[in-house]
Amino acid sequence: MSHKVLALKLRPKKFEELIGQKHVIKSLKNSIKNYRLHHAYLFTGTRGVGKTTIARIFAKCLNCEKGILINTCEKCNNCQLINIGKFSDLIEVDAASRTKVEETKKILEDIKYPPVLGRYKIYLIDEVHMLSLYSFNALLKTLEEPPEYIKFLLATTNLKKIPITIVSRCLQFNLKIIHSKLMIKYLKKILVVEKILIENSALKLICKVSKGSMRDALSLLEQAIIYCGKKIKEKNIIKLIGLTNKNYIYLIVKALIQSDIDKVLKVIIKLYAVGVDVIYICDELIILFHKIALSKIIPKYFKLIKEEIDKELIYFSNKFTIDEINIYYKIILKGRKNMLEIPDLKSGLEMILLKIICLKKEVKI
């Protein structure tokens, strides 16, 4: 029996099934409702937020046999073929693997032929920013004055790399990262259907690590199910992806307060021994010092962010001056950038923390 991964199994087939991106969905629905259809659409945003999924749904809305509809029938031949990726008039192009101008020209040569099955012949070009400059130039004329039966749906994770001449000829939609609350709510529904038990802290951690990417969250959840079985715990997620419990990050900060170099090194050695990502430790320290600064400046900080009061975080904010917090934040942030250039990440992190301790002791390093 073949297994389908969650990210593919649960890929939305209608606008109503999408998580987030209400601003984009509303615009596309109005476009369909009022028959104000542009010839080129550009979807931008980070990975896993729904760019190609929205493009496919929109393509289906334009080519459903029942008409140009917001709610497609899902029963006609066109809808079913689009759902399984075998619709001849929806041509999906991976620009990352077809960057050469010759390949772009070959694709554009087929534009003169009208659609075979559908109302429109649609070109969905993913990661369009990967095309060469010559490819963009070849695309430019066709993009400006395409035949009436042609629609271009472009998707990119890097808008800055696309020439302005291309961008100006498209309707642009910026997809936002998906809020963690929406992700948690959606993943809980999936887990109920899949009959999987999970700790709330584990679910929050999955969403946090995914950084607003639903595809990343689903992939990580799939990984967790394979690793843990029917019961997923936070400690298993931590082991699985090389993270660390926040208590270890707090131990590092406590050691910094006490200017205890030995304790700092012991914690780092322990974390490194169990395979915790050093960059992740840096990121967590940056986030923590940001929270320390806010809790020091804003008396009702936890009420503002709707979280339970973290007594240890308040303790940290009382132990540092606001100037110290700013200085240490900048040291870690700068060190985080430089770590990508050094051969040994562990020693890089140790030097960052050593610099903070020496600064506290007013010793230059």
Automatic annotation (TrEMBL):
- What keywords does the record list, in alphabetical order? ATP-binding, DNA replication, DNA-directed DNA polymerase, Metal-binding, Nucleotide-binding, Nucleotidyltransferase, Transferase, Zinc
CDD domains reported in the protein's UniProt record: AAA (cd00009)
Q: Which SUPFAM superfamilies match?
A: P-loop containing nucleoside triphosphate hydrolases (SSF52540), post-AAA+ oligomerization domain-like (SSF48019)
InterPro entries cross-referenced by the UniProt entry: AAA+_ATPase, DNA_pol3_clamp-load_cplx_C, DNA_pol_III_gamma-3, DNA_pol_III_sug/sutau_N, DNA_Rep/Repair_Clamp_Loader, HLD_clamp_pol_III_gamma_tau, P-loop_NTPase
Question: Where on the tree of life does the source sit, at the highest rank?
Answer: Bacteria
Q: Which reaction does it catalyse?
A: DNA(n) + a 2'-deoxyribonucleoside 5'-triphosphate = DNA(n+1) + diphosphate
* GO CC term, one of those recorded: DNA polymerase III complex
GO BP annotations of the record are: DNA-templated DNA replication
Q: Which Pfam families match?
A: DNA_pol3_delta2, DNA_pol3_gamma3, DNAX_ATPase_lid
GO MF term list: ATP binding; DNA binding; DNA-directed DNA polymerase activity; metal ion binding
Q: Where is the AAA+ ATPase domain?
A: 37-179
- List the coiled-coil residues: none
> According to the UniProt record, what class of enzyme is this?
transferase
Give its E.C. classification number: 2.7.7.7
- Provide the family line: Belongs to the DnaX/STICHEL family.
**How does it associate, per the subunit comment?**
DNA polymerase III contains a core (composed of alpha, epsilon and theta chains) that associates with a tau subunit. This core dimerizes to form the POLIII' complex. PolIII' associates with the gamma complex (composed of gamma, delta, delta', psi and chi chains) and with the beta chain to form the complete DNA polymerase III complex.
Q: Record's PANTHER family? A: PROTEIN STICHEL-LIKE 2, REPLICATION FACTOR C / DNA POLYMERASE III GAMMA-TAU SUBUNIT
- What does the UniProt function comment say about this protein? DNA polymerase III is a complex, multichain enzyme responsible for most of the replicative synthesis in bacteria. This DNA polymerase also exhibits 3' to 5' exonuclease activity.
Q: What is this protein called?
A: DNA polymerase III subunit gamma/tau
Q: Which lineage do the record's taxonomy fields give for this organism?
A: Bacteria, Pseudomonadati, Pseudomonadota, Gammaproteobacteria, Candidatus Johnevansiales
